[in-house]
UniProtKB/TrEMBL annotation:
Keywords: Membrane, Transmembrane, Transmembrane helix. The keyword Transmembrane helix applies. Residues 44-140 form the Nucleoside transporter/FeoB GTPase Gate domain. It comes from Lederbergia graminis. This is Sporulation integral membrane protein YlbJ. It comes from the Bacteria.
Length: 409
């Protein structure tokens, strides 16, 4: 039997097994799907949708090309990617995954990146957003907003290290003309050249503003609906694996690795759950009693860096529309998880002491208490207004879609 046939049998058997399991465990499956939907409904959609639309408009109007020309002297020496890579990198950190992948794929479709450059760039432009790190993980699971300080610092440090590492990936053997042009303009910051690039890009795009806006809304919501589907699917999948004790079986192999690093073996189940889906893994880690806060933070840092198979499936779906290979992204996620966990161990003592991570709110300085309160209020705000933004955006999408379908071709 060849590998292709074996793969077909395994995939078909796995899908059938999960379908049967969902039939026999309908209540647990329903609760898990509601949990995934709630996260998408309240946090993911309202936090990503505005950024996705604005990003599409910025690309169409040539602003990204303008930023790219300015950032060329920074991005090229550091990460061996053109200056336009600075835009998805910044947006990826601000809005969270899979924004970096979507923008990188978009720039590749616009021919502003070579295939190798796009594979380098996508490897370090996908990160957890500050809202997710501080809001969902630190406030929601650990009830300690200050923990987000070290989680965010180590997460973005790991992200930066991955970027430096991936500059050595691949050889720029193709698109010589594009690379030569990029290197020719990468020596100094040139505002005149950046303005010229902005104008040229705008002139090439003959679409009216209304058409650009409509395309941006439709493209963004298509992507967000896909993201929502993956979040719900992996939420159910992870819960079923946990109920069927499959997670426990997989965790038994993880025990050896934890023992090497002198971490409690009880962390193996949350770690395996986090490999599938970051929210459940982070939640299970936070609820563990037989581990110190530092040990739990190390595991959560690894989970955030690895991003979970749920996020990776979202990225794979986005990259499938281009010629960008998924493998470099997957390898980079493993390294980012390792880097983030290492930095957490290295920086824990000074940061925990300075920001009193293990102190109660009553013993913390006033500025830290205000920091804690701000993040609590931010999470509450998203829970209240997030569903409203989601509903209004979907109504807008339906209106534009119907209008376009009814218009003559």
């Amino acid at each position: 039997m060849n590998v292709s046939k074996l793969k077909t049998i395994l995939l078909a058997s796995g899908a059938t097994f999960m379908a049967i399991t969902m039939i026999f465990l309908p209540e647990e499956s329903f609760k898990a799907s509601i949990r995934g939907l709630k996260m998408w409904w309240e946090i993911v959609f309202p936090s990503l949708f505005p950024f996705f639309v604005i990003a599409e408009l910025l690309i169409g109007f040539g602003v990204v090309r303008f930023i790219g020309t300015l950032l060329e002297p920074l991005m090229r020496p550091l990460f061996k990617v053109p200056g336009v890579g600075g835009f998805p990198w910044a947006m990826g950190m601000a809005t969270g995954f899979p924004a970096g992948a979507k923008l990188t794929a978009r720039l590749r479709q616009e021919k502003q990146l070579t295939k190798i450059e796009a594979e380098r760039l996508v490897s370090f432009t996908n990160a957890s957003s500050p809202l997710f790190i501080f809001g969902a993980v630190s406030v929601g699971f650990f009830h300690n907003p200050r923990l987000g300080i070290i989680l965010a610092l180590t997460h973005y440090l790991g992200n930066f290290c991955v970027g430096l590492m991936m500059r050595f990936y691949g050889k720029d053997g193709k698109d010589h003309k594009m690379i030569k042009e990029q290197k020719r303009t990468s020596s100094v910051f040139n505002i005149r050249q950046a303005l010229s690039a902005l104008h040229q890009t705008r002139m090439k795009n003959k679409q009216p503003i209304g058409k650009l806006l409509g395309d941006a809304v439709i493209s963004s919501i298509h992507t967000l609906l896909m993201i929502g589907g993956f979040i719900i699917l992996f939420s159910v999948l992870n819960k079923l694996l946990l109920l069927l004790n499959i997670t426990h079986i997989l965790a038994s192999f993880f025990v050896i690795l934890l023992s090497v690093f002198q971490l409690p073996i009880e962390l193996s189940i949350p770690a395996i759950a986090g490999i599938f889906e970051i929210t459940l893994g982070s939640q299970l880690t936070s609820e563990l009693a037989n581990a110190t806060l530092m040990q739990k933070t190390i595991i959560v840092s690894f989970i955030l860096g690895f991003s979970g198979l749920s996020v990776q499936a979202q990225v794979a779906s986005i990259l499938a529309e281009t010629d960008i290979d998924f493998k470099p992204f997957f390898v980079a996620r493993i390294f980012q998880g390792i880097f983030a966990a290492f930095f957490t161990f290295l920086l824990w003592k000074p940061i925990a002491t300075k920001f009193q991570l293990e102190s109660t709110q009553t013993t913390a300085p006033v500025f830290l208490q205000q920091h804690d309160l701000w993040w609590h209020e931010t999470v509450q705000y998203f829970e209240e207004i997030g569903p409203i933004i989601t509903i209004l955006s979907l109504i807008c999408y339906i209106f534009i879609y119907i209008k376009r379908m009814s218009s003559p071709v």
